[in-house]
Design a protein that fits this description.
Elements (H helix, E strand, L loop, with lengths): L2 E5 L2 E3 L5 E8 L8 E6 L6 E6 L6 E3 L7 E6 L4 E6 L8 E8 L14 E4 L3 E5 L2
Parallel strand pairs: 2-11
Antiparallel strand pairs: 1-3, 3-8, 4-5, 4-9, 5-6, 7-8, 9-10, 9-11
Length: about 130
């Protein structure tokens, strides 16, 4: 079975950094695109970043571009989200998702291209 386990969340100060990890198993990791999405209290799921299967194409939502970096290690079956210059607006539960294809869509309208999500990891940024 496909499994995705996020880790690395916690409390960060304003302007601080956190590095999230998502350990994947149950599928050929290097054959699929991956994304990170987040959900703040009272809001819907919000796409954050995506990366192609080969890691050569990366996309970010405007509000995190220049602050966050997505990367992956296909030899270790891990996708990362390095988050820098954090602010309170970044407080949310962060999820990693497996795409159905090798590619991901920039600023997707729906999440139909994803078939599995992890349990999420909480990120809280203090003022």
């Amino acid at each position: 079975q496909v499994q995705l386990v996020e880790s690395g969340g916690g409390l960060a100060q304003f302007g601080g950094s956190l590095n999230l990890s998502c350990a994947a198993s149950g599928f050929t990791f290097g054959d699929y695109g991956m994304s990170w999405a987040r959900q703040a209290p009272g809001k819907g799921l919000e796409w954050v970043s995506g990366i192609y299967a080969d890691g050569n194409h990366k996309y970010y939502r405007r509000s995190v571009k220049g602050r966050f970096i997505i990367s992956r290690d296909n030899a270790r079956n891990i996708v990362y989200l390095q988050m820098n210059m954090l602010g309170p607006e970044d407080t949310a539960v962060y999820y990693c998702g497996k795409a159905r294809f090798r590619t991901v869509i920039e600023e997707p309208v729906t999440f139909k291209e994803y078939d599995t999500w992890g349990q999420g990891t909480q990120v809280t940024v203090s003022s």
